[in-house]
Amino acid sequence: MVLDQRMKSDKPHPCNSDVVSLNLSGNLLCCWEDVASITKQLEGLQELQLSDNRLCIPADPQNLAHAFINLRVLALNSTAVICGRKQTEVPICPSTHVISIQVLRCAPMWPLLEELYVCENEITELHRPKNVLQNLKVLDLSKNSLAGGNELLNIAELPRLEKLNLSSTGLSTLQFNDVGPGCKTAMFPALKFMSLDDNAISEWSVVNELEKLASLQQLSCHRNPLIEQDRTPETTRQLFIARIGQLQVLNKSEVMREERKGAELDYCKMFCVMWLGSGGNRDPELDRPSGEFVEQHPRFQSLIRSEQSTHGLRAQTVIVRAGTPAVNKPSEEQRSQALDSFLLDQGWETYW
């Protein structure tokens, strides 16, 4: 699209009504008024790219909303590099607080925005959106500095957010404190996809927290220390699948029904000795696994009870082959007692 003098008219040109996407990245634009003078001519505009520009907050953002009335997608990537601005100017993306101050102050301009991309902006803090961005479905925060997972809680109430990209943010922890292990959080109620590639995640507790997300179906978690631990890629994938019950796609690979069944079975076999050693018991009245075990393996109880109920077996009759590997094995005495409980008349075969 060629932007010529016709764009300066107050009335839209007939040819402009067909324009739905506009890329103004890297054009040295300095204020939203200049952007609005262009976009108000494009009545059908739905996607706008403004990356690599320096944009100062307008005095009254609501006044410019008519120029972005149909905007659904907005890219503001790499706008943190501000040079030569006046001291009185406030850029859209300084080194911190992008989502909390600058973007939120500008957000009244985009009443119908559904996708927001703010990559590589040196964002370190997130603040709660109030009465803005409530239609947001996609948020890309990749390549920012959000090592503390607590920052995410400030955007956890976005009611329609379905996709969240947190790749390359230094994220190492994540915790939804409103509910305990095995329960579903009220946070991120619509979130279906999350990308956590290239972060510092090294503990399975983070994966357990993801299980609390009621709508999560797709996860990408490449190149994290957790993936590089002393396990085969196949075993690591199994542990992800077993720990997140509703996961349908992991690292762009669909989780098939048989794969899930095998992953959950192997997971129970891997940790059953630890479960019994912590106080678990196949008699429901005596079944009291420790709080530490429940916290580390919040799905374990439900997996065993679900499988046993499905196949009509008596409570917690799980038979495990001798020598099944266990993580963080209990003492030999505990192990012996656990195996004695598991080895029933049917022999060594595993039954579900």
TrEMBL record:
Example GO BP: cytoskeleton organization
InterPro entries assigned: LRR_dom_sf (IPR032675)
Keyword list, A-Z: Leucine-rich repeat, Repeat
Record's keyword annotation contains Cytoplasm: no
PANTHER family: CILIA- AND FLAGELLA-ASSOCIATED PROTEIN 410-RELATED, LEUCINE RICH REPEAT PROTEIN
Official protein name in the record: Tubulin-specific chaperone E-like
